[in-house]
Amino acid sequence: MVKGILFDLDGTLFDRDAAVGQLVFDQHVRFASVLADVPRDVYAARVLELDAHGYGDKADIYRQVVREFALPDSLAPQLTADFWRKYHAFCRPFPEVPSVLAALSSQGLKLGVVTNGSVQIQEPVVSELGIAKLISVILVSEREGVRKPHPELFHRALRMLDLRPDEVWFVGDHPQVDVDGAAAAGLSAIWRRTPHWPAPTSLHRQLETLDELLVWIQCTA
C-alpha cells in the first residue's frame, strides 16, 4: 500500500519552460536599451533553446547569446544575475498541483520533494509555489551532496519519511534522472510525460497531469 509520494520539482510541479519564457520576454523589455536591435521573440527563443529545459548553465547561455547577437561582453553577467534575481517571481504551479497535493495530504500520505539544484534557488521555488506547508521533506542535491539519479538521494528521502521503497511512489519528468533513478532505488516510478524527453527505459507508469494520482490512490485503497 502506498504511504508516501515523492516529487521532482522542475517540470513536475511547475512549468519551468513557461516560467523561463515569461522571464526572458520580461527581461528583453527591461534591457530594451541594449537589446533593442534583437527581436524579442528571437531573443527569447534562443535563450530557451540554450537553456535546454534547465540543463544549460545560465552564465554560459548568456555569454553565448551576447556573442551571437554582437552585444557588449559586459552584458552577459548582468543578464545572468538578472535571471536569478527575477526567476522565482515567474514560477507558478501547474493548475492541478495545489489541490492534488492538498487532497493527497488530507488522505494521510507523506509528501516530499527531491530535486537537483542549489538550495538558494530551489527552496524559494517551493515557497513561491505555495505548497511548502503540504510537503514533509525537501531534499536539494546541493545540500545533500549527492544528485539524482544516485540511489542515495532517494533512499535518504525514504529514511526521512520513515517508509520503505515499496511504500513510496516517485513522480518526475526526466526519464533518466527521475524515473530510471527512482526505479533503480526500488521506488515505484511514475513519469510525468513531456514531449521534449523520450520515454524512460525502466518499468514505470505515466501520467499527463497529477490529477491521475488521485484515481490511482483510490484503486490501491
Overall shape: elongated
How would you characterize the largest beta sheet? 6 strands, parallel
Unreliable stretches (pLDDT < 50, length at least 5) are none
Oligomer classification: single chain
Round the mean pLDDT to the nearest integer and report it. 96
How far is the first residue's CA from the last residue's CA?
7 Å
Helix content: 40-55%
The run of helices and strands is EHHHHHHEHEHHEHEEH
The tally of strands reads 6
The value of Rg in angstroms is 19 Å
Q: How would you write the strand order of the largest sheet?
A: 3-2-1-4-5-6
> Per DSSP, what share of the residues sits in E-state strands of 2 or more residues?
5-15%
Protein structure class:
alpha/beta
Number of helices: 11
Describe the 3D structure.
- By secondary structure, the protein is of the alpha/beta class.
- 50% of the residues lie in helices and 12% in strands.
- It contains 11 helices and 6 strands.
- The chain has helices at residues 16-30, 32-35, 40-51, 58-68, 75-86, 97-106, 119-129, 141-144, 151-161, 175-184, 211-220; strands at 4-7, 110-115, 137-140, 168-172, 188-192, 205-207.
- Helix 7 (119-129) links the parallel strand 2 and strand 3.
- Helix 3 runs antiparallel to helix 4 (58-68).
Descriptive labels:
single chain, 221 residues, alpha/beta, 6-stranded parallel beta sheet
SSE inventory with pairings:
Elements: E1 4-7, H1 16-30, H2 32-35, H3 40-51, H4 58-68, H5 75-86, H6 97-106, E2 110-115, H7 119-129, E3 137-140, H8 141-144, H9 151-161, E4 168-172, H10 175-184, E5 188-192, E6 205-207, H11 211-220
Parallel strand pairs: 1-2, 1-4, 2-3, 4-5, 5-6
Helix pairs in contact: 1-3, 3-4, 4-5
